Prior knowledge:
Layout: E1 2-3, H1 13-21, H2 25-33, E2 37-39, E3 42-43, E4 56-59, E5 75-78, E6 82-87, H3 103-113, E7 124-125, E8 134-140, H4 143-154, E9 159-167, E10 173-180, E11 189-191, E12 198-206, H5 212-224, E13 234-241, H6 248-255, H7 268-272, E14 285-293, E15 300-304, H8 309-319
Parallel strand pairs: 8-14
Antiparallel strand pairs: 1-4, 2-3, 2-4, 5-6, 6-8, 7-8, 9-13, 9-14, 10-11, 10-12, 12-13, 14-15
Amino acid sequence: xxxxxxxxxxxxxxxxxxxxxxxxxxxxxxxxxxxxxxxxxxxxxxxxxxxxxxxxxxxxxxxxxxxxxxxxxxxxxxxxxxxxxxxxxxxxxxxxxxxxxxxxxxxxxxxxxxxxxxxxxxxxxxxxxxxxxxxxxxxxxxxxxxxxxxxxxxxxxxxxxxxxxxxxxxxxxxxxxxxxxxxxxxxxxxxxxxxxxxxxxxxxxxxxxxxxxxxxxxxxxxxxxxxxxxxxxxxxxxxxxxxxxxxxxxxxxxxxxxxxxxxxxxxxxxxxxxxxxxxxxxxxxxxxxxxxxxxxxxxxxxxxxxxxxxxxxxxxxxxx
Length: 320
C-alpha cells in the first residue's frame, strides 16, 4: 500500500501505479482498468483519475474483475412510455460528441439482454444528472411522455431527493440564488443581480431534523451505511431539489462553505479560505429518490435507489 504525498497530488492513478510498482505504462493501465487498484479501499477503474494528498493506494492482484453495468440489470422502471435507470457514477447521462457507454447505452444493453428491440425505440432526454453523480435518471420513450414529464419539471412537481456528503458541519435549511454560467471567474455560480441568472432553490436536511420525507431517506441511508453517522469533518445530507439547474446542489453547498466531498470543480473559495479537502475516489452525490405522475396513466410513481457500493466504501473510509 502506498500513500500519496503532497508532491504527488494531482497525479493520475495510472501514472502513480506505474511509478510505485515500477511497471510499464501498458501494465499500469491494465491494472487500473481491470479493477486491481483501490484508492482508500474503493476500487477505481479510471486510468486518468486524479489523486489527492493523503489518499492510500493499494494494488490487489487477486481482486476479481469489477462489475460491468453494461452487462447487469440497471433498469428500475421500464414500460411502453417511461424508462428509469440507476446510473453508476462515472457514466454520462447522454453522449457528448461520439462518447459511448452512456446511460442511454446502459438502457439499450439491458434491452438486448432481455431480447427487446434496442435501437428502434427512441429515448427522449427529460433531465440529466452529472457524470460523477450516481442514481435515478428518467428518459421518455414517446414524445407524449416527454412532454408530460417535462411539464412536471417546469412546474417543480417532480420530486427528487439526493444523498450527499459535504465538508464541515452543514446546517439544514433553504438555499436560494440566481445561477449564472459564469460568476466572473469562469465558474458557474450565483449572482447578486436579480435581473440575471436563473432562480434555483435547494432544501437541505441533516440527521435529526428538516423535512419529513428527506429525513426518512437520510435515515434509511444511515441504516444501510452506519459510517454516515460517524463522519468526522463532514456531514451526510439529504437534499431536495425544488428547481433543477446545472450543478445546482454542488454550487449551492460550495457557496455555503460546504463543498461536496469528492468535488473537483467548485472548491476554489473553500481552498482560498484554507479549507482542507477530504479525499474521496468519487463525488459523494447520489440521486436517491424520484417521484412523478406517470405522464400517460396519471398513476403516482415513487422510486428509490440504494447507495451504491463505491459510495458506501468512500463513506467508510471517511469515518475511519
